[in-house]
Amino acid sequence: MSEPFLKVEHLTKHYPLSAGFLKKPSLFVRAVEDVSFSVAAGETLCIVGESGCGKSTVARLLMRLVNPTGGRVLIDGTDIASLEKHELRAWRRRMQMVFQDPYSSLNPRLTAGQIITEPLENFEPLSGKQRNALAANLLEKVGLSSEMMHRLPSELSGGQRQRLGIARALSLEPSLIILDEAVSALDVSVQAQILNLLMDLQQEMGIAFVFISHDLGVVEHIGHRIAVMYLGRIVELATCEALFANPSHPYTEALIAAAPVPDPTRIRSATLVEGEVPSPINPPSGCAFHPRCPLAVERCRILVPPLVSMPDGRALACHVRAPDETMPALSSLPATLVNSTLV
Ligand code: ADP
Ligand code: MG
Predict the structure, then answer these.
(1) Would the CA dihedral through 13, 19, 22, 23 be positive or negative?
(2) Of 9, 12, 71, 161, which has the maximum CB count within 10 A?
């Protein structure tokens, strides 16, 4: 099998909480903990989970906008941390990002044409003619009229602005685009149009997507595989079909049960999951989901469940549904550990 385009290994990000002048921080926000996944060329991997579970931090780590506390990001087998500055620049052409709010991520003083061609012009000078041709071509690719190249972002609708953000990301012909809540601010009908556009572009150009959303209803349409995150960790990773037909992690089950779905036969529960999302500054011991989990047993309180590969191809982090034989028995652990519920 060929090497996946993007591979993430044990990625971790702890943000120190400021402790005052010259003091060493003693508290950390554990935004991302031991996250591993891969994305093949032309594939869409979705990352879902409630607000604050670390999705945007994963995106920032992939783009190297923040440095990881631990773990690695490999592009075509190369660790991006090992790259020199000029190599990193070349690599950045291959990965682009589209944000949730195209209004704040697009320069309000530039025209649509300038916005689209700016990334390429950072790499090579373009003549006026080349610039116009490129802008017209990319606008057309995302379903906008080439006449829009003279408009300012404020003169476009939300959906048009998001198409513009996608055109800008396409200008460097990247191998992968990270979309962080890229359709979350749009009306449902506009969302559907943008999702269709993305799928068409993928078909045509073979681009891979990392598609981040808190909304499971959205990722069901676009995802090949889906990673479900809870408090910084991936708790389940499965193909889209497997995840929706047969969610295995109790948290995934709860998310799907609560997702607004157009299928009236699917029963929807009113609340997501009992209880609050705990703080990533002081996450619960063991499995971070255990205080809200209907299946939790004693070991869930004590040991962090590893992400186990299941016979059906999914990966699951759950002591009850995916017991890991290699983990220690509770009886072999020091009594202080078991009683204090610390890991
Ligand atoms: P999501 O995108 O899933 O909503 P984020 O990755 O934005 O989650 O945030 C994960 C956690 O990290 C949150 O608790 C958030 O408050 C915290 N966080 C994000 N960025 C920073 C930062 N720069 N400094 C401190 N904490 C941060
Ligand atoms: Mg976010």
Answers:
(1) negative
(2) 161
Give the span between the Cα atoms of 139 and 202, in whole angstroms. 16
Q: Calculate the alpha carbon distances from 105 to 99, 108, 187 in Å.
A: 7, 9, 19
Residue spans of beta strands (DSSP E) within 186-272: 208-213, 225-230, 233-239
pLDDT digits (tens, 9 = 90+) for 66-117: 999 999 999 999 998 888 888 888 888 899 999 887 667 889 999 999 999 9
Residue 276 clears pLDDT 70, i.e. is over it: yes
Kindly state the tokens that stand for 39.
């994305």
Q: Considering only CA atoms, which residue is closest to atom 11 of ligand 1? A: 31
Rounded distance from Cα 228 to ligand 2 centre (Å): 14
Chain-centre distance for alpha carbon 148: 30
The arrangement of secondary structure in 4-342, i.e. its CATH architecture, is 3-Layer(aba) Sandwich (3.40)
Distance from the CA of 338 to the center of ligand 2, in angstroms?
Answer: 35
Environment of ion ligand 2 (residues, CB < 5 A): 55-56
Q: What is the pLDDT of residues 24-77, one digit of tens each?
A: 777 899 999 999 999 999 999 999 999 999 999 999 999 989 999 999 999 999
Q: Report d(CA 318, CA 289) in Å as an integer.
A: 10
Residues belonging to the chain: 343
Residue 61 DSSP SS3: helix
- Which contiguous run of DSSP H or E holds residue 16? strand 6-16
